[in-house]
Amino acid sequence: MTSGESTVEREGGEGEGEVVLYSSWYCPYAQRARISLEEKRIAYRQVEVDLSNKPPELLAANPRGLVPAIIHNGKSLFESMVVAEYLDEAFPRGSIGVDGLPRGGLMPVQPYDRAIARIWIDFVGKKITATFLKVLQTQDPEGQEKAKSEYLGHIKELSSAMEGISPDGPFFMGEEFGIVDIALVPFAMRHGVLKHFRELSVPDSPEFSRFRVWFAAAVNWPSVKATSFDEKDILPILSKYANNTATSQAAIAIRNNAPLP
């Protein structure tokens, strides 16, 4: 898909101002922003960009040339979870969405719960996303097995955390779909990619049971389904990660054992 405006557009409420989203359909980080916009029922115009030929308007919104980036009321923001939290505050709980109904919130209401959410957003950012890419990009068999074991260990830790926070769920923090779910679900939705290229699946064993409950609920949530993709379309793109020839900033960071950008 080449750069240009997509057909995704939502009519907005008076006075809220237009949100422009720069996105790439296959990018899990951009999917976080799209889920946030859909979940908050915000009017937005989506501009699909070709990251191999970054347009000037993307670089103006984010000089690093990464997606997602948004422009709201003439001001730009980037970093997927910063964007999600901004949208939650700029279009607060109780304000009226594009469907004429009050919006919910992405962040929990209580300060302690908000702090817990931020702890696990940080965990997803530092552990899940980096190790997901490491599983894909590592080429030697011994290194692959080590990366796969590390990744499943992180998923097991998430499952245990969900069990402690909200045993019945179904979402990370309880009954409401929220910001931790948004951080995690784009990568969990790509587990089929890990199975395809690395024969890695989350085991069907008790220590992962709460994660499986979460996964079933999260991937079928309306705002997630609205941003979903056909796995066969994404495999050719992620094959470049699987053979370690991808040239994205994230791929280069993993290749050099550096922090993700």
Brief summary:
The chain is of the alpha+beta class. It has eleven helices and five strands; from the N terminus they run E-E-H-E-H-E-E-H-H-H-H-H-H-H-H-H. Strand 4 and strand 5 form a beta hairpin.
Question: Any overview of this molecule?
Answer:
By secondary structure, the chain is α+β, with helices and mostly antiparallel strands. The chain has two domains: 8-103, Glutaredoxin (3-Layer(aba) Sandwich), CATH 3.40.30; 111-256, Glutathione S-transferase Yfyf (Class Pi), Chain A, domain 2 (Up-down Bundle), CATH 1.20.1050. Helices cover 51% and strands 9% of the residues. It has eleven helices and five strands; from the N terminus they run ββαβαββααααααααα. It has a five-stranded mixed beta sheet with strand order 1-3-2-4-5. Helix 1 links the parallel strand 2 and strand 3 (44-48). Helix 1 runs parallel beside helix 3 (80-90), helix 4 (111-137) packs antiparallel against helix 5 (141-165) and helix 4 packs parallel to helix 6 (179-188). It is globular, with a radius of gyration of 18 Å. Residues 5-15 have low confidence and may be disordered.
